[in-house]
Design a protein that fits this description.
The structure is a homodimer. Chain A is an alpha+beta fold. Chain A is built from 7 helices and 11 strands. Chain A binds a DNA duplex through residues 146-147, 178-180, 188-192, 194-196, 198.
Amino acid sequence: MFEAPLHRFHEFTSLSSDEIDALKDAKTERLELERKQVIRSQGDKVAHVYFVVSGWVAEIVETTNGRRQIAKIHLPGDIVGTASLSLERAAGSLIALNRARVDVIPVEAFARLMAQSPRFAFAMFLSTQKERVMLMDHLTSIGRTSAPQRIAAFLLHLHERLKLIDERIGKSFEFPLSQEELAQAVGLTSVHINRTLQELERRRLIERSDRRVTLTDVRALRELASLPTRKFVRDPAWLPAAA
Amino acid sequence: MFEAPLHRFHEFTSLSSDEIDALKDAKTERLELERKQVIRSQGDKVAHVYFVVSGWVAEIVETTNGRRQIAKIHLPGDIVGTASLSLERAAGSLIALNRARVDVIPVEAFARLMAQSPRFAFAMFLSTQKERVMLMDHLTSIGRTSAPQRIAAFLLHLHERLKLIDERIGKSFEFPLSQEELAQAVGLTSVHINRTLQELERRRLIERSDRRVTLTDVRALRELASLPTRKFVRDPAWLPAAA
DNA sequence: CGGAAATTTGAAATCGCTCAATGATAGTGG
DNA sequence: CCACTATCATTGAGCGATTTCAAATTTCCG
């Protein structure tokens, strides 16, 4: 594991180190979590947002009949739980997928940060729009593609995001999700996930060992997934010069 | 049809009429659209956001093999196309679902509005988070529930939103989507949509006539859909007093 | 080493899809 | 106003992908 990657804040527009320090100061607590540990449950009063220092965190929406959809896998550097700021009670549960460290930031402090720094507010706004695009793509994958395609898209997307965090990452990465969790992420059954993973291995698109996945043929996986490629803006030209 | 509902801007925090005027002034053009007319295509350079004055607009993501997912139905009062602000090229296509009027707002003007009014910026931020929650629920519906459940959830959600726009709306509303479009929204086939709609009629949950839908038994539909109910905040307590 | 959790396998059932044809409806131009 | 055409809705039949259920095997962890 590695420490608090901060470049995620630079995704769209660079923040001053003052602002980064301010965010770090805003935290009231740092949680040390075991795999499967619940950070916050769906329906809880919305009192905090979270910053993932290390480890993976799932955002899970549960239906009233107990079925679970993993709406998002959060990686180190992500600010988590902001969607629920629009709600009185949390939209989903936040659960650690492996050993993780998470900073707890009270909503008041977060709101103050946004109010004090238009730059920070704008970065948050754009980051949220980016999340929306990723959700739309996830939706499209689940709504319109087959099991192998969904798994391909999911793994590729994770891989892309991991590369942003750790430049040196290769075609292979640690994958802490159980097949049941993967199923909950891509809208399938764990049994079918198992068979489809084997099929992808047989087709030499991926390999598995321990808790790792190797994307053997990224090109072919991308072709299979058949999602549009996205190019996110960094410093949009239309950004008001001031701030 | 009716004119530009503005209460959507009041959803979270009330805007001054100055800000509302500013938004109206920001538009460079008003489009008059026929059903099926394309406002903007997926992949287009991102140059505008849009304000739906009347009519319905679909946001559609197309896979590389030509399958279409309707990610969102936009109704009058919605600001549309903001997710693509995080991209160089539009995430999806915007297409009128019926005769519609749409204001065109250059991204620069929109950005300037956000920069000049922290209140407006904050309202946009929260509104976007709300969109994210709705997308997560849509995802959960498609990923984890059956055809009748998905249709129930979709119709209920639309109905809720229509009620926000027009208080006087009853259990019945105009529904301009073709069955093919409904299929693209809920991740099914038009043939299966047809059969499932008939099943829902047989079970006396809905009725259909012309281009209208009646939610005969809202209680039962909600039970069927099995999605969590959401309560969005209006003026969050943690909102910084100033601004 | 022992027990729990996760993976894998098999067989059968089901849901939703595909293909193909028919019927209904609405918009268009004469 | 009617005929014409395109789009949309509906139906049937067969197929295929994914689920369900249940059991066996492997891995993980204390």
